[in-house]
Specification:
This protein is mostly helical and about 160 residues long. The protein has two domains: about 70 residues, no CATH class; about 45 residues, no CATH class. The protein contains eight helices and two strands. It has a two-stranded parallel sheet. Helix 2 links the parallel strand 1 and strand 2.
């Protein structure tokens, strides 16, 4: 199971084990929330009634809660965020800052300038079933007959593996 948000230095791999080592209590306190893996695992454990979470980055906890309540799904956020849009909006939008940044650091755009056109083409192919950006890059691949975004991704990526 994946816990919390993908986050540089995240504790996803030890979250369940760590929570199992802790005693049950009325309140679970997480002083260093980060990507929320430990709190997420504690929430699902059923060992606690109340939760207190803290982090120096005030965007993380509200963003995590929004994710838990289904605000950010493939269906309602299929858009491509360009380098320019990232730098314009990262300070005001936790989704853009954390999902579209390198290592979820909230500061640096996810892709290099050189890789961005290819990544955008793959994004459009997978999310919108649109191969036109690949064609503009001079890349010819057959259209996928898969309906789901992830299934299309798996099929398209085969064309780029060595």
């Amino acid at each position: 199971m994946r816990y919390g948000l993908p986050y540089k230095g995240g504790k996803n791999s030890i979250a369940e084990w760590l929570v199992q080592q802790l005693p049950s209590a009325d309140t679970f306190v997480d002083l260093f929330f980060g990507g929320g893996a430990i709190t997420h695992s504690a929430l699902l454990s059923g060992k606690y009634k109340h939760f207190i979470a803290n982090d120096i980055d005030g965007r993380l906890i509200p963003f995590f809660l929004d994710c838990c309540y289904g605000k950010y799904t493939v269906e309602n956020h299929p858009e491509w965020i360009s380098r320019e849009e990232f730098f314009e909006r990262k300070d005001d939008d936790a989704y853009i800052a954390l999902v579209w940044s390198f290592g979820n650091n909230g500061k640096d755009y996810l892709y290099s300038k050189e890789r961005e056109p290819f990544k955008k083409a793959m994004h459009y192919a997978c999310f919108f079933d649109d191969l036109s950006l690949f064609e503009e890059l001079g890349i010819k691949i057959p259209r996928s007959n898969k309906k789901g975004t992830y299934e299309r991704y798996l099929e398209y990526k085969k064309h780029f593996e060595d």
